[in-house]
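Person: I keep going back and forth on a fold encoding question. Show me how you would write down a chain together with its backbone fold. Please set it down just below, with no commentary around it:
Helper:
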Amino acid sequence: MALLTGVELLRALQSGRGALPSAGSSKAGVETLDFQAMLDRVKAEGFHSGLGVTVAPEAGVQLSDDQLQRIAAAADVAKAHGANRALVEIDGMNLLLDVGVRAITGKVDIQPGVPVTGVDAVMRVPDSAAANGAGVAGAAPLSKSLPLTNPSLLAALSKSSAA
């Protein structure tokens, strides 16, 4: 039986279906796996939506494909933490990121004693070598309507609510 990737685990969990979407797969459904093991695997691998980031024409910055990919990973983390507008530090630049529309909207020159307003998150994006192909490690939000069908998750929740 093949192991599921972290992304496959979260997609299966979020879908509310115990099994993976692809019919005939030899991979185990999420209801047979240990929930903590699934969380640990996703944490180790990171989770990325696969959505890109654009640069608004008025932003006045040019970014490489590598920088855009790393900012996209940061946008996933910012979104998972509930941010709407983030100040993102990448390769010596301070950029404004509209998390909801996934767009760089400007560049900020931070001056001593002058506050930067209009942001609810600040992130430092690792350089390419530090990211090691994974971008920014982050959280993976799950649907609020997720039906709980995993036995190890249900057991863990019942223990914590009984305490």
Observations:
- Residues 6-47+142-162 form one domain.
- The chain is about 35% helix and 15% strand.
- The CA atoms of residues 126 and 136 lie 7 Å apart.
